[in-house]
Amino acid sequence: MLGTVATLTASQTYTGLGALPHFNPDDDRDPLHPEVAALREAIKAADAILICTPEYAGGLPGSFKNLLDWTVGGGEIYGKPVAWINASSIAAPTGGRDAHDTLRKVLTYAGAKIVDEACARIPVSRADVADGQVADPDLRGRIAMAVRLLRDGV
């Protein structure tokens, strides 16, 4: 999830991950691919960015790393408050730690302002999700707390 956090109820979720072209530094120039331009505009318009990504094979999924690569050259993420929550299951060997380490490295390189207090490991099992929503009230409360901490870090 990549979106704005202006209040706890107003957010925009970025849904164009699958339409992004493969990153190539030679293509990181005007005119940008329309989906890259839309991604950068969404980041520019955001008050803050909350990321939720699973860990895959000990790191970030390749498609999400591709998205991050497109964020570096434009500078829109520079100084932007950013946090993440995990999307790994209780059984995941590292609980998302390796993906978070990679996120920290890339986002620091891009100049994002990481709001550490809002970065949270909240293991969610498949049984905790119904119709695409986290159903457990305790988990929902922990996620809401991370969002509030990110909002307060703006």
CATH superfamily: Flavodoxin domain
Number of domains: 1
Main sheet characteristics: 3 strands, parallel
The residue fraction in helices comes out at 25-40%
Q: If you compute it from the alpha carbons, what radius of gyration comes out, rounded to the nearest whole angstrom?
A: 15 Å
CATH architecture: 3-Layer(aba) Sandwich
Order of helices and strands: EEHEHEHEEEH
* Strand percent estimate: 5-15%
What is the CATH topology?
Rossmann fold
The total beta strand count reads 7
Trace the largest sheet across and list its strands: 3-4-5
Q: Which word captures the global form?
A: globular
Give the SSE layout:
Elements: E1 3-5, E2 11-13, H1 34-45, E3 49-53, H2 62-72, E4 81-86, H3 97-110, E5 113-114, E6 129-130, E7 133-134, H4 137-153
Parallel strand pairs: 3-4, 4-5
Antiparallel strand pairs: 1-2, 6-7
Helix pairs in contact: 2-3
Description:
With 154 residues, this protein is α/β, with parallel strands linked by helices. It has one domain (3-153): Rossmann fold, CATH 3.40.50.360. It contains 4 helices and 7 strands, in the order ββαβαβαβββα. Strand 6 (129-130) and strand 7 form a beta hairpin. It comes from Amycolatopsis eburnea. One of its GO terms (cellular component) is cytosol. Residues 19-117 form the NADPH-dependent FMN reductase-like domain.
Task: Supply the key terms.
154 residues; alpha/beta; Rossmann fold; 3-stranded parallel sheet; two-stranded antiparallel ribbon; 4 helices; 7 strands; 15% strand; globular; disordered N terminus; NAD(P)H-dependent oxidoreductase
